[in-house]
Amino acid sequence: MHDLYAFVRGPLAWAAFGVFIGGSLYRLLHLLMLVHRKEKFIYSYMSWKYSLRSILHWMTPFAAVNMRMNRVLTVVTFAFHLGLILTPVLLLSHVLLWEESWGLSWWTLPDGVADVMTVIVIAGCGYFLVRRLAQPEVRYVTSASDYVILAIAAAPFVTGFLAYHQWFAYEILFILHILSGEIMLAAIPFTRLSHMLFAPFTRAYMGSEFGGVRHARDW
Amino acid sequence: MKRWALAPVLALASLWLWAPGFSQEDMTAVDASPFERPQRAPALFKHDAHNEKAGIDACNECHHVHRDGKKVEDESSEGERCADCHGRMTQGRVPSLTIAFHTNCKGCHLEQQKGPVMCGQCHVWRPIKAGAAAE
């Protein structure tokens, strides 16, 4: 177990962060270069005002028409994304490891709160899964990769939850937790999880085009 | 009241009387009370059995004394608690209490590739079951 621990905690962690950071920079630069080469006219109407206006509207629950049309989905989506991003970043155990390795530390959530947020993320994954399976109009646009991505996002939370509570085989779950987190990090730049990187740009673009060109709202 | 009914009461009372006389021989876990709001179960640590099994002779492997940034080899500090010198936050070269424990305990286990290194191997929520499994 020591060898396995050292491996997932050492070289594999370096590789995962390397792919995540390197891959994300590559994807973003690639996008910007493409725009620069092929669609320079976009610059003529890109606007901070309309960009931020759109981003803010889409970050506020129920501020867009789509969100008001399906209230349950909106609540689940917001809670899910909040938990998905905040829980790992503000988790006490993660911050302790950052401090032990790099001397960096920051404010953390009490473990009890993080536990509830973890359950919310897992429940959110369950909701998205059922929605894909049960609603014909969603199922129609679903491909196998959507299920894989859902599994990649759920795995670190399920294994982390079980390991934290020390249910079932602790050591194996602990290793699987680190492994699944690393898989998720490395998958972000190269799967549809990359909407995490691109969302602000997509919104800025849509916001600017709707605001500056069509003189309409994009929310 | 039947006389035998007193037995558990007496047993509890003697346990209570005995408890303040707690010493490192009886230690089964590191006391987490210096932490404001402990988030984890206290780390399992049978002081004397651990040190014997791990073959640690020098008390100052853990109960260390530092002077002018150097470890004093022939002195030890077992009269003091780690929390007497290690605070809530890391200050300069003095690590916070949590990091001091982790660096000391986990650091050695990693180096020797022996002993627990995963959170839940030390911070065990249900130690009775885990202890039974380990023995």
Which features would summarize this protein structure in a list?
heterodimer; A: mainly alpha; 12 helices; B: 135 residues; mainly alpha; two-stranded antiparallel ribbon; 6 helices; globular
Model description:
The complex is a heterodimer of chains A (219) and B (135). Chain A contains twelve helices and no strands. Chain A is an all-alpha fold and 219 residues long. The longest helix of chain A has 28 residues. The N and C termini of chain A lie far apart (51 Å). Chain B is an all-alpha fold and 135 residues long. Chain B has one domain: Cytochrome C3 (Alpha-Beta Complex). About 5% of the residues of chain B have low confidence. The chains are: A mainly alpha (219), B mainly alpha (135).
The fraction of residues in strands of chain A falls at under 5%
Mean pLDDT of chain B, to the nearest integer, reads: 85
Order of helices and strands of chain A: HHHHHHHHHHHH
Total domain modules of chain B: 1
CATH class label of chain B: Alpha Beta
Question: How confident is the prediction overall: mean pLDDT of chain A?
Answer: 91
Q: Give the strand content of chain B.
A: under 5%
Task: Indicate the percent of residues in helices of chain B.
Answer: 25-40%
**N- to C-terminal distance of chain A:** 51 Å
Largest beta-sheet details of chain A: none
Strand order of the largest sheet of chain B: 1-2
- Hey, which two chains have the biggest interface? A-B, 20 and 22 residues
- Write down the oligomeric state: heterodimer
Number-wise, the strands of chain A total 0
* SS-derived structural category of chain A: mainly alpha
**Tally of separate helices of chain B:** 6
Over all CA atoms, what is the radius of gyration of chain A?
20 Å
Topology:
The complex is a heterodimer of chains A (219) and B (135).
Chain A: H1 2-9, H2 11-38, H3 42-45, H4 48-59, H5 65-69, H6 71-90, H7 92-102, H8 111-134, H9 136-140, H10 144-165, H11 170-187, H12 195-213
Chain B: H1 6-18, H2 47-53, E1 66-67, E2 70-71, H3 82-85, H4 97-112, H5 119-122, H6 127-134
Antiparallel strand pairs in B: 1-2
